[in-house]
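Just curious: can you write whichever protein you like plus the matching structure tokens?

***
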Amino acid sequence: MNSAYGSCYGRRDAARKSRRTAALRLSICLLILLIAASEVLAHNPGESYLYLQIFSDRITGRFEIELADFNEALELSGTDGEITVENFDERVDFLRQYYLEHVEISAEGRPLPINFTAYEVLRVRSGYAQMSFEIGGLDGVPDVLTFDYSVLFDEDPDHRGFLLVEHNWATGTFANENQISLVFSPSSRHQDFDLTSSGRLRGFLAVVGLGFDHMLLGFDHVLFLLALLLPAALRRENGKWQPVDRFNTSLINVVKIIVSFTVAHSMTLILSAFGIVHLPEGLVEVVIAASVAVAAANILFPLFGDRLWMMVFGLGLFHGFGFAFSLPELGILGEHPGLAILGFVLGIEIGQVVIVAVLLPFLYLLRKSRFYRNVVLPVAAIAMILVASVWVVERAFGLEFRMTQRAKALIRSFLP
């Protein structure tokens, strides 16, 4: 009876586990689909956009609108006046003139000239127009900008316009493409936008945050550090890993590793950011991936011994170049470059300290566990070598697998 009951209960438990597993897989698939959809539907029909880049001595911007919305609202679709991707070069002046008649930017009651510069049309849906400009008539950045925005409002009352500030050091805004500052509608065409803020300190702290995030989201950098930290509470003796006797010993080992890594990557990050030294990005990314494999292999076959810090320093130089490659994308070097680089480096170091502070006590507690030393440590090392090897192949031959991209996006979706 007990055997039959246990068998039945086991089948029900297995069925529940199977359903939970299926639900988890379905949730993951839905998350991936949502992430993919968010990439495609970044801009929605019936919306136009005004982006601003606010620097210490000038303000630039960009208008964006879908051609289908513009053509339909002005009843140009199917006529000789229709603007398409193919004839955009010939019709861009008409679009610019329309914007000049329907957008006014002023400061202190004085209209400011909108001077168009470059333009581009993206082949997304029916085509997406991007028209860059500079705001003239400014001696400096005003405290308040006033907008009169009526793009397509008279033709389409349901149309909406959005103001987004892409860059503003003083407010700690960099490479922003999601946070909307103002929403324009037929009933709210005239709006003021306050540019005042706490100044350089806020921008500096924002850059520190970017460096912190970049360290924690840099999977290859984190994995390299993890491979170095896993045996930090152990010592090699007679060909085997043995626990250290004191926490101070572990701490000294970690300090040597962190200092070597910090000095190395800070040097090359600064030299690269200021354009003094440059290496091909492809080469750097391959070496960074290989560095994870080298650090993990050192767990299985310790070759560096007391000279581990030298290996960390040498490979850390390439990690610095890798950090530097992200700076232009973040858009933090346009002004106050010295302060920006200092803040970014500081953020990276804070990220490292957080990783060490979380891991080291835990690893010290595990140091006497034979299961950790004989099973967990080698299995983790082999897994990291395999992952790093995939990265090397991807980066060397430009074959980044779609699953790798989706995995990164999925992990990022769970982070704040």
Remarks:
- The longest helix spans residues 2-40.
- The longest strand covers residues 114-122.
- Residues 3-9, 26-42 have pLDDT under 50 and may be disordered.
